[in-house]
Amino acid sequence: MELAQMQKSLQDYTKSLFLEGVLDSQFLQLQQLQDESNPDFVSQVVTLFFQDSDRILNDLSLSLDQQVVDFKKVDPHVHQLKGSSSSIGAQRVKNACVVFRSFCEQQNVEACHRCLQQVKQEYYLVKNRLETLFKLEQQIVASGGMIPAMELGF
Amino acid sequence: MASSSSLTPVDMSITCDLTNLTSKKAAEESKGSVKWIKKPLFFMILCCLTTSMVIVLLMSSVKEESGSCNGEARVLYRHQNVTRSEIHDLVSLFSDSDQVASFECQKESIPGMWANYGVTCSLNMRLEKEETQSGHDNSKSLIPWNLINPSGLQHFISSAALVCDNLQQRLLLSKEAENHREGLDWDVSSYLRNTWWCLILGLFVCHKIFVSHSKAPAKGEVKTNLQDSLAQKQQQQRACRGAGKGRKNILLLGVIAGVSMSVWWFWDTNHKIILQRRETLENMCDERARVLQDQFNVSLNHVHALSILVSTFHHGKTPSAIDQKTFGEYTERTNFERPLTSGVAYALKVPHSKREQFEKDHGWTIKKMETEDQTLVQDCVPENFDPAPIQDEYSPVIFAQETVSHIVSVDMMSGEEDRENILRARASGKGVLTSPFKLLKSNHLGVVLTFAVYDTDLPPDATQEERVEATIGYLGASYDMPSLVEKLLHQLASKQTIVVDVYDTTNVSGLIKMYGTEIGDISEEYISSLDFGDPSRKHEMRCRFKDKLPIPWTAIIPSGLVLIITFLVGYIFHDAISRIEIVEEDCQKMMKLKARAEAADIAKSQFLATVSHEIRTPMNGVLGMLKMLMDTDLDAKQMDYAQTAHGSGKDLISLINEVLDQAKIESGRLELENVPFDMRLVLDNVSSLLSGKANEKGIELAVYVSSQVPEVVVGDPSRFRQIITNLVGNSIKFTREKGHIFISVHRAEEVRESLNIKDAVLRQRLAAGCSEYCDTVSGFPAVNAWGNWKSFKTICSTENHNSDRIKLLVTVEDTGVGIPLDAQGRIFTPFMQADSSTSRTYGGTGIGLSISKRLVELMQGEMGFVSRPGIGSTFSFTGVFGKAETSSLITKFDLAIKEFKGLRALVIDSRNIRAEVTRYHLQRLGICADIVSSPRTACTCVSKLGGLAMVLIDKDAWNKKDFELLDGLLNCRKEASTRPTKILLLATSATLVERSEMKSSGLVDEVVIKPLRMSVLICCLQEILVNGKKRQPNRKRTNLGHLLREKRILVVDDNLVNRRVAEGALKKYGAIVTCVESGKAALAMLKPPHNFDACFMDLQMPEMDGFEATRRVRDLEKKKIASEGVSAEMNSSWHVPILAMTADVIQATNEECVKCGMDGYVSKPFEEEALYAAVAKFFESG
Question: Where is the Histidine kinase domain positioned along the sequence (chain B) (predicted)?
């Protein structure tokens, strides 16, 4: 009974993530790639994403705090972040990155700072949510249950 | 969308808008143009008026001079009269008083005559400035005078003639000189004036040229690229402003020139007027001085004559012939001779020794002249005068004219002036003048002329002493200066305009005014000297105009006109310039608007492309999920719903693809591929694709390609296929239940050489003429495309015979509902269907035809159609394709074709065209076919033809009875030959039951379902002829997992997460994945011969991006192939398929990827469908 509840709450939670737009279908695709031969695929990728993103955000902060901002350095970072976020389906981070890049093109330092804050915010949000999600999953797995397949009708 | 189908309508709409905007302005301008025509006319008239006025004024000033001449002539004439009458008078006097004296007088009077002659001479000299005519008058008037004095006649005439000659000569000379000078003046001024007009004209012309020049670049600008236009516009704007300034400067210069011209003109003319005035003044003054001088001289001579008269008659006679009475009478009577003298008196020289004697003789004492109170001249009575004081000598007046009889007995020596005068007169022997003084009695200023009278004849070179000695008396005459001058002036013309002063200038410091008034214009004065015959006295005449210089209208008017014209012209030019500026500004605005509109159009297309791409991505998800849903356990109803949803989704995707195509075409981003392909295979594909639909509807689908069309052409197969699919799809949509769809491909050259057509299908079509024909594939009438072909330029044009290019003509003929006549015009407009009901009945968006047309245009071809409602439509298009260098592509059918080569077949078909189609398909396999129309005729044929491998019979021609006959015939041959003749039945549709029935009946070996296509035909023939292994038509779609299993795949991406995801995705399908993180690393891995089956390459990577990496890999491959001499066949170990991974389809389109050697692209992140589509190409065939 408890297990069923946990499964239900996991489903609801995942659904809420999609409804909020934190994640998109790409995350589903990612989940589909996970099978018996590769049981931790999603968490592996996501962890990679976190590591990568932490580094990128760090670099970005440093580059933007320079006296003279070198946008040629900033843009590839943002591009990188955009690519990886879209790969795992972190939709809001991706969208923030798109905006960020457009300001990079305009070489607008102030707006870039704002965007960086925005990206960071979104990133921490998705990080938070995904960690919670993984915790829930781990709980279910620990209690011997199956992680339910995602519903597609969202 | 509709409005933005191309750039041109947008442009037009903008132009329209702007026209509306500026319609008011345009109307004004049209009015303005009329004004513009009127204004120059007005100016032309003005100019003419001005010039004519100037000419007239100049002419009139010339005339004035001749007028003044006439006046002088009159004066001269009067003088002559005077002289004449004087002589007359003298003669009459002497004839009265003493007849004897008359002859003797002749000798004495010669000096007088001489004087007269002198007068005449001097007058003649004056004539120099007059015309010859007046001179002529003069000589005429002299004649009566000469008659009186016959002795002088000869002399005078000769001298007069001489004078006349001289006069004429001089006159001519001076006139010529004058003419010359005047002409020169006139030339210079007119030249300058002409220059001015030329200047204005030049300005006008310059302006025009300038305007046209400044417009020219603006025109050119229109054609320039949109991208450049912004930068150029700024430049142009600057240039325009510069030009505007330049124009304004020129205008300012012009106006300044005009104004200065006007000022110069005024100054010039005014100066001339002043000069002329001065000249006139000079002339008049000289004239007056001369006249006065002459008159005076005449008078002087008379006095001289009188003195001689006195010496002759008073002293020469004893007793004296003259007493006071005679003298008085004579002088009174000859007073008209001396109109200038107020009186004449004769004084005798009396030495002191003879005073008493003298006083006694005359009975009065010599009186002293009262010099003290000359003011009281009126009541001076000689008796009151004191007797003259004792002196050495006296000169008492003995004779006096009546007017001055009061001075008789007055001693002239006692007056200061008179005494001096007398002394000088007797010393010089000439008439001498006193300085002006107030005359006795008249109180006028006057001078006294004194002549000495000598008693003996003096030699001309007598000394002063001799003269003094010989003096016996003095003759004096007083001249009343004011009345003298006034009288004279009255006789002269234009006395009103001139004021004359006469001065005695003997004493330079103290000028004595003898005559004159204070009035008149003092600013201008002319002085001419007067010679009254007394060298010791100097006189001069000063003339000035009475009125001040009148306002010089003749100078003001033309220059004023010039000024006005200048300003008007300046105003007009200013107006024009400002208008040009406005127009230029408007033009720039319009250009800006145009650029904006164009940019908006491009943005719209881009937006469309992006949006459709964005829609496609989730739609793929929807479709994929629906598919997965359908794989789960669903009941019938749910299944139905899911299938419907899937079908709709597919439709939506195809629509979006179409929109994407349209947008791509519009934004000019669509580029056609150039790869060799087999057109026949493409057509086979299309027909097999659409055969299902066609067969459902019972429509016969047939494909025919002329033998003239090469097997392999170079072009874009997918786009060609798209066009064909579109047209055939339309045809299927609009054809109901019956009829056919016939696709035929010919070379354009075949149609052109209409006289000698080898192709059977084409021949039939051309023979049928323009309208519909019945001998079609299905037997239903169809519209002949021939009428349409004629309008194609690409067919008609004979030039451009490029050997490596071929023009193909494709026709799709159907027997559908046809297109309503009124809708035929808009059939190629996007989203416009024949009518709104069409979309209701048949569905569809109406974008397909528009895209097809665009694609055809990209292939440098044309598209057209002919259609008849109720009969059908025939669409035709041409396209230019390249010729392939290799004659054929290696296909999987090659082996099969070899098997069939050289076989013979018989086609039994009642319809000629259909039979031709069948033959075409057989010919592709290398099978020779003969055609007969029915089984019956086939019977006769079969007997003639040996070695028939097969007989193909159409279902329409199927007749069991006849066929059994034929079968028998064939069977009897069967034994003879090693290979039995196979019989195939061609059917449009046949159920499985029918087919098995047919087969089991034993009459038919195989039933072939039309449309015929190579693969199907090969399968069937292989089955029945070779009896080899039955080939499964591998139609079942292979799974992606199956495709990728055990494939070695290289993933290149700099993004760790992406790499991981891609790896995961590919691994899921069983691929062996290797990941590298940069282009360089990929390059190290990808060395031919390759160890990888495929490579997925990210495009945007630092250091070396995907394009660059691919290019290098390809270069490496080429080098290797060249160096190792590997066969040209595309072995996968020598050509690794590289697929681009990109998140943005718009930016990195397929074309770009292909350009640098990539084989395709997959959108990131991976999706099953997209991945399959991309990968299938390489692994399915491989």
Answer: 610-878
